[in-house]
Write a structure and sequence with these properties.
Two copies of one chain form a homodimer. Chain A is mostly helical. Chain A contains ten helices and no strands. Chain A is globular, with a radius of gyration of 20 Å. Chain A binds a DNA duplex through residues 15, 18, 39-41, 49-53, 55-57, 59-61.
Chain lengths: 204, 204
DNA sequence: GTCTATATGACGATAGAC
DNA sequence: GTCTATCGTCATATAGAC
């Protein structure tokens, strides 16, 4: 009796589901600690499988984390397409930053590789990651340019500076500081950081 | 023949000088990489002594890095006292952030412990560090309050949010992103980040 | 593909000669 | 106090049975 196509498909689905679970766990763990601090044991325990099994899915820790980052960029891309087209450009940008902050505050967003970590080196050599990054950056870049031409974002700022400043909110330590203080609710923290990001510290 | 007090003092000076060199190297290395990524071998090589000798000065990696962070807070404190007293409060704050950014861009400022690293745990248990942190924060907090009462910093923002936002500039990844691009000079990067920090992204 | 067990290497810390 | 040499530990990655 030959294995039916359905059975094969089911096995593949299992495989995919397990891989998805691994990526989910990795994403969450990378949101809790730095790349160096996260161990493959952490991931294996979180998923509930043996460490060796991880290596059947991903050849190395670097590859795993890389895939996790690509997945996150995919989620960013998916979010971008849900932003109403009729929103003003600066409101689209605000929506993006708000979404990033909400993910950060829920520990669902890994720290961006802001320094020369092993991860950053791998990411910059990974075509999937770079492609996803360019796709996302292009969309955001358009919004920035539009917002600047409308004057709602300072046209004097180089668009790249605006882009990086928005990206940096996704790993803003201020969120962690304020959360630790316990003095503000999550929603308040998001609004406060949003305000300082777009309006700055000065009175308007 | 007894050792003269002068000789003793000289040996002590040597000791102090070596310790200073160790702290300097640690400070620079912590500016280049994260706490976990920095090794005691790195420090020993940078100073030009054997790793074992480090442990004659500092009992552990944690203690060494802790001392390094305390030393940096000391430099911050020293800088604060050089800021002209007749400057407007908001200009004092700008001067502080500019100084931080210049240190960051020259890799002379360790990343602040923004997440739960082993270092952060140690720092928060170290009275010297906490005391230095409170001293510095108090001075900055006064400037913030004054700037808010003058209306040059938004009085609607909780002072703590302003303080953390300023602190976060000392480890702003935007600086690294822009520096890597090679499109802006160090001085331009400092001014751009200063502008987004105080004025935000929106046009004024 | 999943597991247990292990090889390999890196790093913090120490021993002991000088 | 400085060095060389080494220990103990932990984490990545793999071997090999099932």
């Amino acid at each position: 009796m030959q294995p039916s196509p359905v059975k094969l498909s089911f096995k593949e689905q299992m495989h995919q589901a397990r891989e998805e679970a691994i990526l989910q766990a990795t994403c969450r763990l990378l949101g809790e600690k730095a790349y160096d601090a996260m161990t493959m044991d952490d991931v294996a325990n979180a998923v509930g499988i043996a460490k060796a099994s991880l290596y059947k899915h991903f050849a190395s820790k670097e590859e795993l984390c890389c895939a996790s980052m690509v997945q996150i960029l995919g989620k960013v891309h998916a979010f971008l397409s849900t932003v109403p087209a009729d929103l003003a450009p600066q409101d689209k940008l605000r929506a993006l930053v708000r979404w990033s902050l909400e993910r950060l505050i829920g520990n669902h967003m890994p720290l961006l590789p802001s320094r020369n970590t092993a991860l950053r080196t791998v990411l910059m050599a990974d075509n999937q990651y770079l492609h996803a990054l360019v796709t996302v950056s292009d969309q955001i870049g358009q919004w920035i340019t539009q917002a600047q031409s409308q004057g709602s974002v300072d046209p004097a700022l180089p668009p790249l500076v605006v882009l990086y400043t928005l990206y940096a909110r996704a790993c803003d330590p201020v969120v962690g500081f304020l959360k630790e203080g316990g003095q503000f609710s999550d929603a308040e923290i998001v609004e406060l950081v949003l305000k300082t990001c777009f309006d700055g510290l000065r009175s308007r």
